[in-house]
C-alpha cells in the first residue's frame, strides 16, 4: 500500500496568527511608504499620477496596509520620492516577503566573508 504525502498548506489557508502577522507587516510597509511620500512633499493624488496608478486612492490603500504596492510600481515609487530603488526594495521585501528577504540577506553576508 502506498501512502500519499499530505500537500503543503496553501497560503490562502493562513492561521489567525499568520493573518495577524501579515496585516502587521503590510501596515509597516504602508507606514514606510507614507513616510517616503510625505518626505518628498507629495500628495496621494500626485503620487498616484507619478507612479501610474489609474486611481490615486490606491496610494491610500497601499499606505494603510489594505493592499501591497505591486512590484511593477516599486521603481517608480522610489524614483518619485527620490530614494534608492534597492533601499525601497529591501524595505518592502523585509515586510512583504520576509523569507525571501532573509535568504538574500544571508547570501549577501556569505559573499562578504
TrEMBL record:
It comes from Oceanibacterium hippocampi. It comes from the Bacteria. GO terms for molecular function: DNA binding. This is HTH cro/C1-type domain-containing protein. InterPro entries: Cro/C1-type_HTH, Lambda_DNA-bd_dom_sf.
Amino acid at each position: 500500500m502506498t501512502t500519499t504525502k499530505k500537500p503543503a498548506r496553501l497560503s490562502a489557508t493562513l492561521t489567525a496568527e499568520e493573518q495577524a502577522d501579515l496585516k502587521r507587516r503590510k501596515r509597516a510597509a504602508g507606514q514606510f511608504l507614507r513616510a517616503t511620500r510625505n518626505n518628498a512633499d507629495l500628495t496621494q493624488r500626485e503620487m498616484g499620477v507619478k507612479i501610474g496608478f489609474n486611481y490615486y486612492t490606491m496610494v491610500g490603500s497601499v499606505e494603510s496596509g489594505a493592499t501591497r504596492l505591486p512590484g511593477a510600481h516599486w521603481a517608480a515609487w522610489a524614483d518619485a520620492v527620490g530614494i534608492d530603488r534597492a533601499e525601497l526594495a529591501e524595505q518592502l521585501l523585509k515586510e512583504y516577503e520576509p523569507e525571501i528577504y532573509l535568504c538574500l540577506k544571508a547570501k549577501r553576508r556569505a559573499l562578504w566573508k
